[in-house]
Amino acid sequence: MFESLQDKLGGVFSRLTRRGALKESDVAEAMREVRVALLEADVALPVVRDFVRKVQEQAVGTEVLRGINPAQQVIKIVHDELVAMLGSEQEPINLRANPPVPVLMVGLQGSGKTTTSAKLALKLTNKENKKVLLASLDVYRPAAQEQLRVLGEQAGVKVLPVIPGQMPVDIAKRAMQAGALQGYDVVILDTAGRLAIDEALMAEVVAVKAAVNPAEILLVVDSLTGQDAVNTGKIFKDRVGITGIALTRVDGDARGGAALSMRAVTGCPIKLLGVGEKIDALDDFHPARVASRILGMGDVVSLVEKAAATIEKEDAEKLEQKMLKGQFDLDDLAKQFRQMRKMGGMDGLMALLPGVGKVKKQMAESNINDQMLARQEAIILSMTRKERRKPDVLNGSRRRRIAAGAGVQVQDVNRLLKQFQQMAQVMKKMGKLQKKGAMSPQALRNLIPPQGYGR
């Protein structure tokens, strides 16, 4: 998400930084380019106008123009205004009500409402330790209730049994009664959608709202629809009174205009981001982190959180000890490849690291991607257990056998083994330095492999 905007803004600020001292005309020119970049990213025109005006008012001040690093000060102003546009603070799902807390999911058909309902149920179960009940109120779309039942099974979350012929308001009331009787903390109500907004859709949602008095009304919108998503948000806000927004398919949206416009246009916070097809691919929305990613500053906090969520502490400690003792083997390397995939793959990790725009292009040109990682893991899995633990035994005939088994060239096997040897050497040096208490910054710099590593 935001890739095209990130590239364009990166170019603007790179040129600004090279100029050193700034004049008002320099700032004005940069803001014109920022304006065009935001419009091309499909950000709503009124939002762009307001954003550029606020930035320019602050950026042409005497303190900025005469500052020690005026370009960095301008970038800081842009960052802060982006955060303000996106909502300043992260706002969690509101569960401040007597249980069972009703959460109403609304939106158009095809926006990802049902999938997001199941994802949210799993998230609340795993991260908030809540007992969640799912209920489908969609009696119109064929197999909609069956879809939620299947997704509920995948998430390990209970789904309200279907009673044929029951209408949405009655289903909602039954779900709340079941939630109260069976000790549920949260009841997520997945409403029906339409291909377009109409009176019947709005009347039904309003009736369900009146019946259950939800603590949270989440509008689910597809970020790929751009300005249509923003217009949908405004209408639902006016007619239903939504309290938050869940943006879906953000992993396929390179522009990000819907995310940047939604808060400003609707006045409602974006609370959730659907970042993939997997049942656990639902993230909280953090305005400051998103602003940093847009400006190429990365999102190290999210990276650390992903690592903490996917890495078992005991496994990490065992791996650390093996590394420091110089016992790191190819089985461990294969585990690291699998771990990277769990954390979102190469692209997902690179998106969270600061200043990687140019590096990503170089990686793409060198074919360093998820397919390469999968190929390298296939090479390791084509080895015997003895070969993985003692790579020194890999002579020419063994390497040819491994290459044939993995469907690659012998050169690919040689390249992987060279990378592994370099990594193992670094691990041994780290172990020795730690024993001596010599892990100084200079010592760490001496560990960096020579240029060309991995080629």
Helical content class:
55-70%
Instruction: Estimate nothing, just give the exact number of structural domains.
Output: 3
Strand order of the largest sheet: 3-2-4-1-5-6-7-8
The outline comes out as: flat
Which class of secondary structure composition applies to the elements? Answer: alpha/beta
Indicate the CATH class of the largest domain. Answer: Alpha Beta
Helical segment tally? 22
- Examine the secondary-structure arrangement and name the CATH architecture of the largest domain: 3-Layer(aba) Sandwich
Radius of gyration: 26 Å
Overall pLDDT metric: 78
Low-confidence spans: 298-307, 352-356, 438-455
Number of DSSP E strands = 8
Key phrases:
455 residues; alpha/beta; Four Helix Bundle (Hemerythrin (Met), subunit A); 3 domains; eight-stranded mixed beta sheet; 59% helix; flat
Helix-strand blueprint:
Elements: H1 3-18, H2 24-40, H3 45-59, H4 62-65, H5 70-86, E1 101-106, H6 113-127, E2 132-136, H7 144-155, E3 158-159, H8 168-181, E4 186-190, H9 199-212, E5 216-222, H10 227-239, E6 244-248, H11 257-266, E7 270-274, E8 282-284, H12 287-294, H13 300-310, H14 313-324, H15 330-342, H16 345-350, H17 357-365, H18 370-381, H19 385-389, H20 396-406, H21 410-436, H22 441-446
Parallel strand pairs: 1-4, 1-5, 2-3, 2-4, 5-6, 6-7
Antiparallel strand pairs: 7-8
